[in-house]
Amino acid sequence: MISMRKRGAVYGVIGLMLCVAVYLNWSYFQSPSELTVAAQSDGDTDESVETSEHVYGEVTSVNADAKTEKTADEEKTSSKRAESTETEGFFADARLKKQAARDEALSLLKDTLSSGDASESAKEEATQKISTIASNSVKETKIENLIVGKGFSDAVVMMEEGSVTASVAGSNGALTETDVAKIADIIVGETGADLTTIRINDANGG
């Protein structure tokens, strides 16, 4: 009798443990409907991630375009600086050559004036040429300033016997026909030279 009671108690404990196990199993694992909701929630999260990646991709594309535009602007700026430096070098070299030619001419004329073998007529001619060179230098400087005053970047003018040469850099690229006409008018006004004796060079290579 006692043995049967013990067995009944054991069975009762086992049954209780089974009930607890079933309850715990139900608590830890959701119902099919809850699982469906969870799956939908997970799906929404994935879509959100994909949308985020898509937007990020667009932003990245815009940034890439901005970088490309920036690079293009930098290249243009660098190119303009290079052209400006090259033009400045051209005018610096032209002025040096002009001054060297003038200095050599003046040196020869002064030698004539100081020479005991030179005739009086030769000395008078040398004196006249020295005066002409000085006068031309003043006119050249004035013409250059007037040209720059018209909006051109720079100019070098060289007056020689029977001709006037002007090398000019436009502020916006190659010289136009209108630019050439303006420069020629300035030269004629200051020197009285005939248009056929005037030569205008485009320092920008146009």
Structure description:
With 206 residues, the protein is mainly α. It has 4 helices and 3 strands, in the order αααββαβ. A 3-stranded mixed β-sheet has the order 1-2-3, sandwiched between helices. A hairpin with a 2-residue loop joins strand 1 and strand 2 (163-169). Helix 2 (32-114) runs antiparallel to helix 3 and helix 3 (120-149) crosses helix 4 (177-191). The termini are far apart.
In short:
It contains 4 helices and 3 strands, in the order H-H-H-E-E-H-E.
Describe the secondary-structure layout:
Elements: H1 2-28, H2 32-114, H3 120-149, E1 154-160, E2 163-169, H4 177-191, E3 198-202
Parallel strand pairs: 2-3
Antiparallel strand pairs: 1-2
